[in-house]
Design brief:
Blueprint (H helix, E strand, L loop, with lengths): L7 H11 L6 H6 L19 H7 L1 H9 L13 H9 L4 H24 L5 H28 L13 E11 L2 E9 L5 E9 L5 H18 L4 E6 L2 H8 L8 H11 L4 E6 L6 H8 L1 H4 L2 E3 L8 H10 L1
Parallel strand pairs: 1-4, 4-5
Antiparallel strand pairs: 1-2, 2-3, 3-6
Helix pairs in contact: 1-6, 4-7, 6-7, 8-10
Bound molecules: zinc ion (ZN).
Zinc ion (ZN) binds next to loops.
């Protein structure tokens, strides 16, 4: 639940519903506070329980129906928490966030009616909340991007036993594209380097995204489970962090996102070109080595860039 891609205040609210401690009328009565047997949203004389408020109330049902997921509530015998668990089961953190935002929208509309004497209609309540979730996500993404505007100039090893894999792609001739990757441990020592030759000239962006996909497949094969992938393509890294991407690489990014699920811990970051030199050189020599892996002794072409990285890290 804490992983859902939505603001913390909403997650806190969901947490409070799981413990049935939100101040709806029925809970107030339980705590010995006087409250009326009345629902402000539908005007019925019923106890305002979480179940009524979020599931049974006609207003809430209309709101869920208007929700982007078009949720219909049929399981009337479940508690609200049981129901919420069921709808969120096996959903991505983005879908879970949409559902949480829906719960929040209903609660906010209820408070608007109760305390501000507004009469929100379910359609606009849901729509405006989905827009604010979108705004929040965009703000989060721009935070990530801001992080990226000042990427490390020199290559740096990672702390905490994580493996860093630098990747790159480049044209190696008139009709081939090379990929290179190099995996180093948290101490900066070489674990494995590799090259791959694609026998077609790929568009630069497609090449960068394909190099990421290929490196992720290699890392999976080699059973590396805690990895940071570093690319000098800001567009590819941004696409991995956000939901949207350039249509030309959309399918490749989707493959990468599916591959990401094979790792215990995986992240993606952007580096300046000159902090990505060994991978860059590997991509350019792929025409010579084609498909190859190096474990102990890297190809001579990257000895110097490796040395430079080691000197600055
Ligand atoms: Zn009601």
């Amino acid at each position: 639940m804490w992983k859902a891609n939505c603001p913390t205040k909403i997650k806190h609210f969901i947490y409070r519903t799981a413990n049935n401690i939100i101040p709806c009328q029925a809970n107030l009565v339980r705590r010995g506070i006087e409250a009326a047997e009345f629902c402000w949203m539908c005007g019925q004389e019923v106890w305002e329980t979480q179940e009524h408020l979020f599931m049974q109330c006609a207003w809430a049902r209309a709101a869920w129906f208007q929700h982007p997921l078009g949720i219909r509530i049929d399981q009337v015998n479940l508690t609200f928490t049981e129901w919420l668990k069921e709808v969120c089961l096996n959903q991505s953190i983005d879908i879970a966030a949409l559902i949480f935002q829906g719960v929040w929208a209903i609660w906010k509309a209820r408070n608007d009616k109760l305390f501000n004497e507004l009469s929100p209609d379910p359609i606009s309540a849901i729509n405006s909340n989905m827009n604010s979730l979108q705004d929040w996500r965009e703000a989060q993404n721009s935070l990530n991007v801001e992080e990226n505007t000042n990427p490390e100039v020199a290559w740096k090893a990672l702390a905490g036993g994580k493996i860093k894999i630098n990747i790159d792609a480049g044209w190696t001739g008139s009709n081939s594209t090379g990929f290179g990757f190099i995996a180093r441990s948290h101490t900066g020592s070489l674990l494995v380097a590799g090259t791959h030759l694609e026998c077609q000239r790929l568009d630069p962006l497609v090449a960068e995204a394909s190099a990421l996909r290929w490196s992720m497949m290699k890392a999976c094969e080699l059973e590396m489970d805690s990895v940071t992938f570093e690319s000098d393509s800001l567009i590819v890294i941004r696409a991995m962090r956000a939901d949207s991407s350039d249509w030309t690489i959309h399918n490749i990014i989707q493959d990468c996102q599916a591959l990401a699920e094979n790792f215990n811990s995986v992240s993606f970051s952007h580096v300046k070109r000159n902090a990505n030199l060994p991978a860059h050189v590997l991509a350019s020599v792929a025409i010579k080595y084609q498909d190859q892996l190096w474990w102990d002794y890297p190809p001579t072409e990257i000895e110097h860039p490796l040395f430079v990285d080691a000197a600055f890290s």
